[in-house]
């Protein structure tokens, strides 16, 4: 993984021997979601108002992190892991240099980012089963801003 190559060995050692805790996102009778930061250098705070919003196409989220790199440009990719294969399911640019469309676009290294608000997406029925989904945010220099592995248990 490219992010691992750039990470100083010492952090890699600490990370692999301790790792980040697993956080619970939401749970109802049909859905359980957990995540763990896959950025070896920092954890990530994330909450969802409820699991059920995921099937209606709009959820309120809260997410917070401290930036280790500036985000004049910010991209997000979402990959689904299935049968040991990584399948890209979503990819888009969130911040453009000349159009800071979101409140946190343009923030610099060391600054805190806090986002609270709705995220809407094409609604779909989450199929039954267990899935792992990795969400990665990176800037224009390919530096990881946030990396999280979600585990989704759908019944
Ligand atoms: C995140 O998921 C990827 C793909 O399944 C895996 O290679 C990696 O080890 C996971 N990282 C953590 C911290 O769970
Ligand atoms: C940002 O806003 C500009 C102007 O409204 C628009 O053209 C562009 O598509 C938007 N970019 C993103 C990433 O939403
Ligand atoms: C998802 O990740 C967890 C923890 O890394 C692993 O135990 C599980 O086998 C993975 N499940 C799938 C469907 O890839």
From TrEMBL:
> One Pfam family for this entry, by name?
E1_DerP2_DerF2
Which UniProt keyword terms apply here?
Answer: Signal
List, alphabetically, the InterPro entries matched: Ig_E-set, LY86, ML_dom
Specify whether Signal is a keyword of the entry.
Answer: yes
User: What are the recorded Gene Ontology BP terms?
Assistant: innate immune response; positive regulation of lipopolysaccharide-mediated signaling pathway
The signal sequence is 1-19
Q: State whether keyword Signal applies.
A: yes
- Limits of the MD-2-related lipid-recognition domain: 35-152
Which named protein is this?
Answer: Lymphocyte antigen 86 isoform X1
Organism this protein belongs to: Eublepharis macularius (Leopard gecko)
């Amino acid at each position: 993984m490219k992010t691992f190559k750039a990470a100083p060995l010492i952090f890699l050692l600490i990370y692999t021997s301790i790792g980040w805790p697993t956080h619970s996102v939401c749970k109802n009778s049909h859905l359980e979601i957990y995540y763990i930061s896959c950025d070896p250098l920092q954890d990530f705070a994330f909450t969802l108002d409820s699991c059920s919003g995921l099937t209606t196409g709009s959820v309120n989220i809260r997410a917070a992190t401290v930036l280790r790199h500036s985000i004049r440009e910010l991209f997000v990719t979402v990959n689904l892991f299935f049968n040991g294969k990584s399948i890209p399911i979503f990819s888009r640019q969130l911040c453009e240099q000349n159009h800071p469309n979101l409140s946190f676009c343009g923030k610099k290294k060391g600054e805190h980012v806090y986002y609270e608000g709705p995220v809407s997406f094409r609604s779909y029925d989450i199929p039954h089963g267990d899935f792992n989904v990795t969400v990665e945010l990176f800037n224009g220099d390919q530096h990881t801003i946030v990396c999280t592995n979600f585990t989704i248990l759908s019944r």
